Every structure is written in structure tokens, then in C-alpha cells.
């Protein structure tokens, strides 16, 4: 009887370790941030903007990035005509500035985000807050999808387009 209990414990331990390993492998993606956003229709506007500004190639490179990715619905919250204007060739530098304000040059999971200021690739800081188990960026934008793992970083979905202080 004692041997049967030991064998059962061993089988359960092996099963749990196998499941844990499989889970950790599933959490790692072979796709880059740019590939993930390109494959998700909810990010079609973001993907178009990344292509327009040349940032798609940056987010396809090896490295570690955190992207606060606005969905199409987030872009729809911009004042009427803003998105159309930003996508015009003469406003490409402004669009690029706005997009770089959504990127941190390191991989930061939501559990690692600390309340306070975080430097972006645009050069200004985002203000991160945590309240009631939720993460907010610049007070008004909520992280609605967290920790989407990519081969070159992580994506956090936000419900608003973040505007840098200089825009």
C-alpha cells in the first residue's frame, strides 16, 4: 500500500511538472510584436500606422520592447478627422512621435510595472498607475489586455491612444 501511494505521488508530480513546462512554452511566442499586431484585426489601424512610419521594421527586430498597443476602438476615440490627418504623408513625423510614445525599450510585464513614470522611445515619460487590480497609463487609458508575449518583447492592449506631452 505504501509503495502504491509513493508511485501515485510520483506520477502526479511528473504530470504537474509536464503541464508546467508545457504552459511555459505556450506563453512564449515565436512571432515578433509587429507580426502579432499584423495578424490581429483589432490592431489593423495600428499596423497601418506602423507601416506608414517605418516602425513596423523596428518592432520586427530582435530586442526587448514593451508596446502599449491601442486597438481600432482606441483610435476611433480620437477627435473626428485626427486619424485621417495623422495618416497623411505630411504628418508622418507626428504620427511616428505618437507611436514611439507607446513603446518602452525593455520588456516589462504588468506585474513588473511600478506606479510612476516610465521613459518611452519618444523621449517623454508615461505615467503608470495601479488601482483595484487594474493598470492605467496616463490616467485615462486602461490596460485591457496584458502580457501578450512576443519573441522581442510584450504587448499590453490599451483602450486609448496615448498622446505625448509635446503633441
3D architecture notes:
There is one protein chain. With 167 residues, the chain is α+β, with helices and mostly antiparallel strands. Helices cover 39% and strands 23% of the residues. It folds into two domains: 1-29; 31-158, FAS1 domain (Roll), CATH 2.30.180. Strands 2-1-7-6-5-4-3 form a seven-stranded mixed sheet. A hairpin with a 2-residue loop joins strand 6 (141-150) and strand 7 (153-158). Helix 3 packs across helix 7 (92-100).
Question: Which structural traits does this protein have?
Answer:
single chain, 7 helices, globular, seven-stranded mixed sheet, 39% helix, 167 residues, alpha+beta, FAS1 domain, disordered N terminus, 7 strands, 2 domains
> Which term fits the overall shape?
globular
Query: What's the CATH H-level homologous superfamily of the largest domain?
Result: FAS1 domain
Spatial arrangement of strands, main beta sheet: 2-1-7-6-5-4-3
- Please indicate the percent range of residues in DSSP E strands (runs of 2 or more): 15-25%
Instruction: Decide which structural class fits the backbone.
Output: alpha+beta
Number of strands: 7
- Please report the number of helical segments: 7
Q: What separation lies between the terminal Cα atoms?
A: 73 Å
Please name the CATH architecture of the largest domain: Roll
Query: Please, how many domains?
Result: 2
Amino acid at each position: 500500500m505504501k509503495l502504491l501511494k509513493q508511485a501515485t505521488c510520483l506520477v502526479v508530480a511528473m504530470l504537474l511538472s509536464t503541464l508546467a513546462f508545457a504552459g511555459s512554452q505556450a506563453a512564449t511566442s515565436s512571432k515578433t510584436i509587429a507580426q502579432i499586431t499584423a495578424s490581429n484585426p483589432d490592431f489593423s489601424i495600428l499596423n497601418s500606422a506602423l507601416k506608414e512610419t517605418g516602425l513596423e521594421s523596428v518592432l520586427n527586430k530582435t530586442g526587448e520592447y514593451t508596446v502599449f498597443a491601442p486597438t481600432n476602438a482606441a483610435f476611433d476615440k480620437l477627435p473626428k478627422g485626427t486619424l485621417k490627418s495623422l495618416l497623411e504623408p505630411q504628418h508622418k513625423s507626428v504620427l511616428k512621435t505618437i507611436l514611439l510614445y507607446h513603446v518602452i525599450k525593455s520588456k516589462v510585464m504588468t506585474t513588473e510595472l511600478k506606479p510612476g513614470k516610465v521613459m518611452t522611445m519618444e523621449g517623454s515619460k508615461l505615467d503608470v498607475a495601479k488601482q483595484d487590480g487594474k493598470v492605467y497609463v496616463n490616467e485615462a487609458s486602461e490596460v485591457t489586455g496584458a502580457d501578450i508575449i512576443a519573441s522581442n518583447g510584450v504587448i499590453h492592449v490599451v483602450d486609448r491612444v496615448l498622446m505625448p506631452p509635446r503633441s
